[in-house]
Write a structure and sequence with these properties.
Elements lengths: L1 E5 L9 H14 L3 E7 L9 E5 L4 H13 L4 E6 L8 H11 L3 E6 L8 H17 L2 E4 L2 H8 L8 E3 L19 E6 L8 H8 L5 E6 L7 H17 L3 E4 L5 H10 L2 E4 L8 H8 L3 E5 L2 H7 L6 E3 L4 H13 L1 H17 L2 H12 L1
Parallel strand pairs: 1-2, 1-4, 2-3, 4-5, 5-6, 6-7, 8-9, 8-11, 9-10, 11-12, 12-13
């Protein structure tokens, strides 16, 4: 099978690029031919990437349609990343692919929240038009499937493929009884709840908390006061450190490997790459009990839950876990099994079956 993947590959500040790279390599191992049709200006030289698209030039979308037809791709898989596609040209692009006789699969990495009426209108227009034209919609969680299936026009198109886990070859380890390293990782936003972690662990000497991330460029104005509040904790309490810059992949590996637990104190999220990263590095995630995290971690099986926005319960969950070696070992054993079941190589087989 010859597959064209449409993606903003690989963006400089997002996990989707690494996701696409891993998926391409795994599908290729199965004997299929894959090319990534990406956007101009990224400057990456992977031989299977064709930078044909320009977000705001319709002629580039037409060029991509011609390229897909002329090179006789059997299937098109679109990595659906809301901020990067033109809301007028992109649905038409998908429609033209269908007119050209191509089966188009949309891989929905997330279903974004509707923070305000303008975003709601834009997302509804974009999502609905694109998904109506698509042959099939691939989502990564049962919650996302339920949300899409509430729309009768989309009900028969939705398939769930669990989000794959990259294999990082990190050795699992149990935490020390008298000291624990905690990691909050990712773009800083109120919905991520990093302030709850600061409040929970401020001044506790045996707890070292790293908060690693910057504000996404789309939210600088709105989230700067919130981020300043996070930084104020680090200035007041020596056990809290904030690394407010984009970090390299090597530094990311070091930070994950040095941590004992990965914290996800989120107020809201549909799914999280940080959650799968924690599993990839054989780290136990400690998460707020919002539905998306509750469903994935199955409290006590693949992670530990605490009551959302409750710093007292958060602190209790961490301090109890750090001395409970038997519980840590059970969870790490379960994570090791999950890593095998949801490796990119294993999940690639499911993608191939859905695309066939």
């Amino acid at each position: 099978m010859r597959i064209a993947i449409i993606s903003t590959y690989p963006p400089k500040k997002c996990g989707i690029g690494i996701y696409t790279k891993n998926l391409v390599e795994s599908i290729t191992k199965k004997g299929h031919s894959v090319e990534v049709i990406s956007f101009k200006g990224y400057g990456y030289g992977d031989k299977y990437v064709q930078p044909l698209l320009d977000k705001n030039r319709f002629s580039s979308y037409l060029k991509a349609v011609r390229y897909i037809k002329e090179n006789k791709f059997d299937r098109v898989l679109i990595q659906h990343e809301h901020p990067f596609y033109n809301i007028f040209y992109f649905p038409l692009f998908v429609f033209l692919l269908r007119i050209a006789g191509k089966k188009v699969n949309i891989n929905m990495h997330t279903i974004p929240p509707y923070n305000n009426i303008f975003r709601k209108i834009i997302y509804v227009l974009l999502n609905t038009s694109v998904m109506i034209f698509a042959s099939q919609i691939i989502v990564h969680t049962s919650l996302a499937k339920e949300k899409l299936e509430s729309n009768t026009l989309l009900k028969k198109k939705v398939s769930v493929i669990p989000i794959p886990i990259a294999q990082c070859n990190a050795m699992p380890k149990l935490s020390e009884i008298d000291r624990v390293n905690l990691l909050c990782f990712g773009f800083v936003h109120y919905d991520k709840g990093f302030d709850v972690a600061c409040e929970a662990f401020a001044g506790i000497k045996r707890v070292h908390l790293n908060i690693v991330g910057t504000i996404h460029s789309d939210f600088v104005k709105r989230q700067t006061p919130y981020f300043n509040r996070i930084k104020a904790y680090s200035k007041k309490y020596p056990n809290i450190k904030v690394i407010d810059r984009f970090i390299s992949e090597d530094e990311k590996k070091r930070l994950f490997r040095e941590s004992d637990f990965v914290l996800l104190p989120y107020r809201f999220i549909e799914q999280s790459a940080v959650l799968t990263d924690s599993w990839a590095y054989n780290k136990i995630p400690i998460c707020s009990d919002i539905p998306a995290l509750k469903n994935e971690t199955e409290d006590g099986k693949y992670g530990v839950l605490f009551e959302s926005e409750n710093p007292v319960d958060f602190k209790k969950s961490v301090l109890e876990l750090m001395i409970d070696k038997a519980k840590q070992q059970d969870i790490l054993d379960n994570i090791a099994m999950l890593n095998k079941e949801r490796s990119f190589d294993a999940v690639a087989l499911r993608f191939v079956r859905v695309l066939a």
